[in-house]
Design goal:
single chain, Rossmann fold, 8-stranded mixed sheet, 7-stranded mixed sheet, 16% strand
């Protein structure tokens, strides 16, 4: 198979979909890998690293899209890339369709096969979302601690406090991969941490493994309304695979928060779990509503691309090898986890949560895999 790796062009997105090591694994199996020139530079890989691993370098994204049977990306295509995607071309990347209708409609028009990292499921987990969730969860505290500083319009509170001064209070909504990693870092920095979740079994597990400065609470609207009044940093870390995130913090709750409270909405890729959330970039990461600082960067791991690219390729490469070796139809027939990643095929929505999000017709994916 011919695999193409274009350079990411989303604002301050420095990751790349394939490392030189990944290129070598594909080329030694007889596949051809084309990488756009300088695609890996932001992650610490130059063109010579790729050619040394058997890949070929092309100058433009158009050349990559024109020649490739499978496109591997990190972030969803943006408007400038829509017209480059061809009918029947396999696009393997994060899509988060349910959060952005124009992208969904654009991909339907291309006639491409869209296989989304974030809906690939294995043993009840999301193996291609996990590594970036780990990065984003840890970064949410790193960034939240920074924006609690007064020059950045935060409360002016040190996350871990000092002897004689109480530490900051951190509320984490969601006890999944993002929430767990956020809690680890916040606890390690000395904050008082609460993880709120609706899954009592998950809370029991977290209660067993977390340090003593992390408490768990069963989540509901009443509890959230009370907790936001007293917490300094609030991390939105909820996820419904492939669907829009539920709104857990409403606009009216902001008025009950203390000025300088920081909200970090890691669910922004899926529409956000904070009603006042809107996607931001690393170039302009925050905005303020009712004296509350909102950090809603949609590609948080893009700020640490070396770590993120390696972590992502570790997870995606085994699937890319299957897709390249078998073709998407056979690979998805043979692997239920990959089959669940199919969202759009030849102008049809085949993932129900995406169809429901925009009231679009839903087609059972099996119709394309017979």
């Amino acid at each position: 198979m011919i695999i193409g790796v274009p350079k990411e062009i989303k604002n301050n997105e420095n990751r790349v979909a394939l490392t030189p090591a990944g290129s070598q694994e594909l080329t030694k199996r007889g596949h051809t890998v084309y990488v756009q020139s300088t695609a890996g530079v932001g992650s610490g890989f130059n063109d010579e690293d790729y050619t040394g691993a058997g890949a070929k370098i092309l100058s433009t994204a158009k050349e990559i899209f024109d020649i490739a049977e499978m496109i591997m990306k990190v972030k969803e295509p943006i408007e400038a890339e829509y017209k480059l995607i061809k009918k029947d071309q396999l696009v393997f990347t994060y899509f988060h369709f349910a959060s952005y209708e124009p992208l969904t409609k654009a991909m339907l028009e291309t006639g491409a096969v869209c296989l989304a990292y974030e809906t690939v499921e294995k043993d009840g987990g999301l193996p291609l979302l996990v590594p970036m969730s780990e990065v984003a969860g840890r970064m949410s505290i790193q960034e939240g601690a920074k924006y609690l500083e007064k020059p950045l319009k935060g409360r002016g509170i040190l996350l871990g406090g000092v002897p004689g001064v109480m530490p900051a209070k951190v509320l984490i909504l969601g006890g999944g991969v993002v929430g767990t990693n956020a809690a680890k870092i916040a606890a390690g920095m000395g904050a008082d941490v609460i993880i709120a979740d609706v899954n009592l079994n998950r809370l029991r597990y977290l209660d067993d493994v977390m340090p003593k400065n992390v408490c768990t609470m069963a989540s509901n609207e009443y509890v959230i309304r009370e907790l936001v009044k007293t917490h300094d940093l609030i991390v939105g870390a909820v996820l419904i695979p492939g669907a829009k995130a539920p709104k857990l913090i409403s606009k009216d709750m902001l008025k009950t928060m203390r000025p300088g409270t920081v909200l970090v909405d890691v669910a922004v890729d899926q529409g956000g779990c904070i009603e006042t959330c809107k996607p931001t970039t690393h170039e302009d990461p925050t905005y303020i509503i009712d004296d509350v600082v909102h950090y809603c960067v949609a590609n948080m791991p893009g700020a640490v691309p070396y770590t993120s690219t390696l972590a992502l390729t570790n997870a995606t490469l085994p699937y890319a090898i299957k897709l390249a070796g078998q073709g998407w139809k056979k690979a998805c027939n043979d692997n239920e986890d990959l089959k669940l990643g199919l969202n759009v095929i030849n102008g049809k929505v085949v993932y129900k949560a995406v169809a429901d999000a925009f009231n679009l017709p839903y087609t059972n994916v099996d119709e394309f895999l017979k």
